[in-house]
């Protein structure tokens, strides 16, 4: 392809990719490495692919489109639906360090239900962005509330933060727990306690 066949947008994207790869090489130099070393020659391309296609892929997900709802099958369903132990992989926006753990999500249908895998996808869509755990928890709860309009939503995250475990205090094994309660889970103590009992009790594996 000649330069005459490249649109301005494609050219800008190509230039941006090159600038970003140069930044990765400079970071390697800053860390004390030689970016020309054999094992690091392809690292800039790998880093761009990892951040674009995996670690920050959630920016390109339409969360509303994920939450397609169904009325068929929701008749008479007014008890909570809980999905436990959803894997969470994210990165902290302060140090770009990894955050990993589990999410527990519950909702009480109000005439509509959603495919259970969609709840996992919503968690993943928000997790695969630069995050703080408090906002991540709230975004999951608010998205399900907005698009499903259930009688209540509960979200709990239990995560470890490598920004704390591998730098700073360098203490390993701690978990940070955050929660967001909406609707009946916020206003009704018994409903909230039932959710917490399900999350904290019983086997984690079937």
Largest sheet descriptor: 5 strands, mixed
Mean pLDDT: 90
- Secondary-structure-derived class: alpha+beta
- What is the helical fraction, as a range of percent? 40-55%
Query: Ranges with pLDDT <50 over ≥5 residues?
Result: none
- CA-based gyration radius: 21 Å
Features:
two-stranded antiparallel ribbon, five-stranded mixed beta sheet, 206 residues, single chain, alpha+beta, 7 strands, 23% strand
What does this structure look like?
The protein has 206 residues and is α+β, with helices and mostly antiparallel strands. Helices cover 43% and strands 23% of the residues. The chain is built from eight helices and seven strands; from the N terminus they run H-H-H-E-E-E-E-H-E-H-E-H-E-H-H. Helix 1 (8-30) packs across helix 2 and helix 4 (116-127) runs antiparallel to helix 5. It is flat.
Summarize it.
The strands form two sheets. The chain has a five-stranded mixed sheet with strand order 5-2-3-6-7. Strands 1-4 form a two-stranded antiparallel sheet. It has 206 residues and is an alpha+beta fold.
Please specify the SSE layout and strand pairing.
Elements lengths: L7 H23 L12 H13 L7 H4 L2 E2 L10 E12 L5 E11 L4 E2 L1 H12 L2 E2 L1 H16 L3 E10 H4 L10 E8 H4 L1 H12 L6
Parallel strand pairs: 2-5
Antiparallel strand pairs: 1-4, 2-3, 3-6, 6-7
Helix pairs in contact: 1-2, 4-5
């Amino acid at each position: 392809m000649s330069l005459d066949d490249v649109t301005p947008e494609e050219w800008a994207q190509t230039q941006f990719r090159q600038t970003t790869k140069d930044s990765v090489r400079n970071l390697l130099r800053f860390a004390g490495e030689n970016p020309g070393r054999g094992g690091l020659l392809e690292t800039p391309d790998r880093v761009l692919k990892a951040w674009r296609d995996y670690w920050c892929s959630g920016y390109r997900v339409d969360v509303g489109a994920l939450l397609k709802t169904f009325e068929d099958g929701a008749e008479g369903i007014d008890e909570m639906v809980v999905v436990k132990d959803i894997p969470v992989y994210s990165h902290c926006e302060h140090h770009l360090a990894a955050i990993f753990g589990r999410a527990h999500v519950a909702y009480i249908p109000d005439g509509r239900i959603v495919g259970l895998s969609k709840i996992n996808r919503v968690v993943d869509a928000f997790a695969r962005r630069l995050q703080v755990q408090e906002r991540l928890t709230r975004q999951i709860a608010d998205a399900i509330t907005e698009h499903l309009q259930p009688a209540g939503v509960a979200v709990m995250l239990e995560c470890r933060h490598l920004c704390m475990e591998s730098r700073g205090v360098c203490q390993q094994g701690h978990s940070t727990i955050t929660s967001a309660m909406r609707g009946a889970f916020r206003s009704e103590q018994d409903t909230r306690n039932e959710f917490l009992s399900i999350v904290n009790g019983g086997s984690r594996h079937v």
